[in-house]
Amino acid sequence: MDSEIPGKKEKIAASDADVAAKMEAFRLMIREAAEKFGKVDRSETIRLISHLDADGLSSAAVVIKTLLRENRKYCLSVVPQLTEDVAVQLAAEGYNHYIFTDLGTGQFSILKKHLAAAGKTVFVLDHHHVQGEYQAENIVHVNPHLAGIESSREISGAGVAYLFSKALNEKNKDLAHLALIGAIGDMQEDCGFSGLNKEILQDAKAAGALKVITGLRLFGVQTKPLHKVLEYSSEFPIPGITGSESAAIQFLLQLGINPKDGNSWRKLTDLSDEDLVRLATGVVLQRIGVESPEAIIGPVYILKQEADGSPLRDAREFATLLNACGRLGKASVGIGACLGNTKLKEEALQVLGDYKQQISNSLSWYEKTLKLNGSSEKKSITLENGFVIINAEDNIMPTMIGTLASIVAKSSSFNPGTFVLSLARAEDNFTKISLRLAGEKSVKGEFNLMEILTAIAEKVGGQAGGHHEAAGAIIRTEKEEEFIAAAKHHLAEKRIEEKLTP
Ligand SMILES: [Mn+2]
Known about the structure:
Elements: E1 2-3, E2 12-13, H1 16-38, E3 45-51, H2 54-69, E4 73-79, H3 84-91, E5 97-101, H4 108-114, E6 121-125, E7 139-142, H5 157-168, H6 176-185, H7 196-206, E8 210-216, H8 226-231, H9 245-254, E9 260-261, E10 264-265, H10 273-286, E11 297-303, H11 315-327, H12 331-338, H13 342-372, E12 381-384, E13 387-391, H14 401-410, E14 419-425, E15 430-437, H15 441-444, H16 449-459, E16 463-467, E17 470-476, H17 480-500
Parallel strand pairs: 3-4, 3-5, 5-6, 6-7, 13-14
Antiparallel strand pairs: 1-2, 8-11, 9-10, 12-13, 14-15, 15-17, 16-17
The structure holds manganese (II) ion.
C-alpha cells in the first residue's frame, strides 16, 4: 500500500504492517480519550467549541448528539478562528470541561496557556497538521497525525469526532454519515474516500443512513432542471456548455435527450437509464482536452433519510448547505439540520437559497463590472498577464469573496496558473481578501497560495491564513490601494520566477 502525501514527489511505500500499527495507535488514542471522557461527572456542563465551516458544523452535530445520548448538558460556540482572545474568554467562563472539534491542534499552545494551565480539562478532536506543541497536562489531544497518519484526505474533523463518539457508545454509529458530510465539506472526497473515511463509509452504509450510486457528479440534480445543472457545472467544467443555458439545451437536443416533458423542464432524476448513459458519454466526450475528462462520473452519496427531491438527499449538497449556514451566520440552523430537526431543515434550505442568491448576485456584479471595466476612471477589476485582481469594495458580502474567487478561478475564462485575487469590505474598516489559482490540480501543486498571500499582506500590516490551494487575508481598508500595488508587483514577479524555473 502506498499513501499519497501532497507536496512530496515520491510516494512513500508503507508496508501493511506499518499502516496497521499506525491505525492501532490512533484507535488506542481514541479509546483512551473516550474512557477519560466517560469518567467526567454527569453534572458537569460540557463546553463545546467548533469551527464555522461545513466540517466544523458536522463535528459539532456529532458531539451534541453524543452528549445528549449520554444525558449530558452542553454549551456550544462556533467560531471562524480560535484566537487567543477567544481562548481567554473561554477560560474566564467557569466551565471545567471543554471539547474542541475541527480546531485546537493549530492553537495548542494557546489552549495550554489559557485553559490547561488554569486547571481546565480539554479534549481536542482535530485533524489539522500538528505544528509546534502537541502535549500538555490536562489536554487530551486526539489527532491522526499524532499516530503518524499523515494524509490530509483520510479523515475530517467530524470523522475524528465520530470515532470518539463511537468509542463512547456503539449506538453512535448512526452518526457516521455526518462524518462523511464533514469530509466532503473539507474536499476529502475525490472520486471515492480513502483511509479512515472509507471505514466510516462502511459504518454509514451499515447504519442504513447512506447509499452510494455511480453517476454524473453534477450539482443540483435533485432539484434543478437538467440543462441548468449542466450550465452550472463548475466543479467539473464542460467546455462550451458550462456558463451557457442555450448551449446546454442545444447539447441535450443533439444527444437526443428532450430537456422538457410537456411544459416542464426535466431533472436528471427523471431520465431513463438509457438516456443517462447517453448523457454521461456525451458529457465525457465534451470534456476531452480537460484534465481527467471522466472524473465527472463517479460515486454519488445519497442520504437515505432525506426526502426524495430534497436537495439534502445529496451529501455534497448537504455540505454546501452547512457551508451556507456558516457563512451567513446561521451555524445553529445547520447543526439543527444535521440533527434531523424538521423545522431547522426547512430554515436551512432557505439559508441555502439565500446563499445561492448571494453567489448569483456576486457573479452578476462581476460580469457586469468586467464588461464596463475601463469605461470609467477607476477600475474595479485589473486584468494582467498571469493575474486578475477584483476589488468589489461594498458590492459583495465579505463572506462571499472567497466563493467568488473560487468560481472565477474554476471558470474556463482564464488560463491555468492565473492568480485570482479578490477583495471586499467587512465591518470596522477591514477588508477581506481571497487568493485562488485558475486551473486544475496539477497546476495548483506548483504554488503555495498561503505563503504568497502572507508575503503581500504583511507588507501592509495585514494577516493571512489558509492553505496551499486557497488563502485568505485581512487588511485595514485604508491600505487597499497599497495592498493592490504590492500584489501587482509580487504576483508579476511570481509569474516571472515560474517562467525561469525549468
Ligand atoms: Mn476540517
